[in-house]
Design goal:
mainly alpha; 2 helices; 0% strand
Length: 134
């Protein structure tokens, strides 16, 4: 998984899986229902047997396409949930680290020196060498 997934990326994945792809599938499912409701009295010049054969094929096709689109939505949803789970676990780990009493201790034997304290090493003073000395 990429290391730099953001909340905006997770929202985009959620939107694709929960809003956009189900609407695409609905178009095909609506077409499936429309074709299923059509009968020989629909004004077509095909014979009844030819129309029924075509109608069944169209129904199957629209149902299959709609199902594939919803399978895609499920895959996107699963990816989003995986990112969300990893992100939540990382956040919980960070909270545990930040809440560790040893990390926030003022005991000089286990805590790093506070900036500006007597124990803080600060920054070294550069050595000023006389001219011509190396």
């Amino acid at each position: 998984m990429p290391e730099d997934v953001t909340g905006g990326d997770l929202y985009a994945l959620w939107r694709v899986s929960e809003a956009l792809l189900p609407r695409v599938a609905d178009v095909y499912y609506d077409a499936n229902r429309l074709v299923a409701g059509a009968d020989s009295a629909s004004g077509l010049t095909f014979g009844l047997t030819m129309w029924n054969t075509l109608r069944y094929e169209l129904q199957d096709m629209y149902a299959e396409i709609g199902g594939v689109v919803l399978d895609g939505a499920t895959a996107v949803r699963d990816a989003r949930l995986a990112y969300e789970t990893d992100d939540t676990e990382a956040a919980n780990d960070l909270q545990d680290i930040l809440a560790d009493p040893l990390r926030n201790s003022t005991d000089p034997d286990i805590a790093p020196p506070a900036p500006g304290s007597e124990d803080d090493p600060g920054t070294p003073i550069p050595v000023e060498r006389p001219s011509g000395a190396s």
